[in-house]
User: What shape does this take?
Amino acid sequence: MAPDTSFLLIGMLANQANTTKDTVRHYDQLGLLKSRKRQAGSRFYTEFHPECVERIELIKSAQAIGFTLTEIKDSLNDYYDGHLDLNDQLIVTQQKLEQVQKQQANINLMVELLTERIAILERMKIDSSYKINVEDCKTRPTEPHL
Assistant: This one.
């Protein structure tokens, strides 16, 4: 029987998926990609299913919107196995959105506080007698809440 030539070696997969061999190895170790071992003489090669190109694109897309590789793994495998629970996915995605919105609010607060600090420092630079009003500092949160 002729060997299945549709499987890709790591270099070809990395090239087609516009990523690195190290990334492919990492994803494979985490169970995000479908691969198989093949022996050629005394060497073993890892071959990857052609759908891995699409899998890598989906992984990168999910990472870009804030999902971790651990969060991606089960959903990705469920998707390809035809067992994706859309209700669970909606809940997880809504939770991720809420998390990102909280991070955004914290970043907005940090921008506001840093802007105020710059204004104070600029005023102090111009007016050496200017003193910071400690009470004003106490009325504002000094750390973002994650």
Observations:
- The mean pLDDT is 88.
- The two ends are 58 Å apart (CA to CA).
- Residues 106 and 112 are 10 Å apart (CA to CA).
